[in-house]
């Protein structure tokens, strides 16, 4: 089963620094809220869709997760 969400720890495992990973998750949550998903307007929620993070970074993360 593919993981369709990503959190800060997943990004840190991929080599991003902790603050950068947190910023990426924060940006992804803002995008999801702008798209109409009010569920992501919750400070305790730390998982976001991989597709949103991929659009921020401009790279595919699914290939990176399969290598682990």
UniProtKB/TrEMBL annotation:
Name-wise, this protein is DUF3173 domain-containing protein
The protein's superkingdom reads Bacteria
Q: What is the species of this protein?
A: Streptococcus suis
Where is the organism placed in the taxonomic lineage, from the top?
A: Bacteria, Bacillati, Bacillota, Bacilli, Lactobacillales
Output the InterPro entries linked to this UniProt entry: DUF3173
């Amino acid at each position: 089963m593919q993981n369709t969400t990503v959190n800060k720890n997943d990004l840190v495992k991929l080599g991003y620094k902790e603050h950068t990973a947190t910023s990426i998750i924060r940006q992804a949550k803002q995008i999801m809220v702008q798209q109409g998903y009010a569920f992501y307007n919750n400070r305790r929620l730390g998982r976001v869709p991989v597709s949103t993070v991929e659009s921020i970074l401009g790279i595919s993360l699914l290939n990176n997760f399969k290598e682990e």
